[in-house]
Write a structure and sequence with these properties.
Layout (H helix, E strand, L loop, with lengths): L1 H14 L4 H8 L3 H8 L7 H10 L5 H6 L9 H35 L2
Length: 112
């Protein structure tokens, strides 16, 4: 599990053009300690995870810690749009099914 978190940290840092040295410089922490934690030699500390989350406020802690969702947080308005689209598709399917159920007695009489 820890190796997964470390992998996600490395992946995200690379995607952002950052590295442990940049994080260490920004927060005035020991670069060697930070690098060894992120690169797998030393156990990853909670304070290191918090530094990463603080440096990248758009980074999803759910993704970082559990690998669930997308790397970056989804804004509430985006979530609403996603839910509205799902609702519309569900209602379309329901209306199609309801129309078939509604027409069933007539089709039965006709032998269809």
């Amino acid at each position: 599990m820890e190796t997964d978190v470390k992998s996600r940290i490395k992946e995200y840092l690379k995607a952002k053009g950052a590295n442990p040295s940049k994080v260490a410089a920004r927060y005035s922490v020991n670069q060697k300690t930070l690098s060894s934690q992120i690169n797998g030699v030393t156990t990853l500390s909670a304070s290191t995870i918090l530094l990463i989350l603080d440096m990248f406020p758009e980074l999803s802690s759910e993704w970082l810690l559990r690998g669930i969702g997308s790397p970056e947080k989804v804004e509430l308005s985006d979530r609403v749009d996603i839910l509205e689209n799902k609702y519309e598709r569900l209602m379309d399917k329901f209306n199609e099914a309801f129309g078939e159920v509604k027409d069933f007695p007539e089709r039965r009489k006709k032998g269809a």
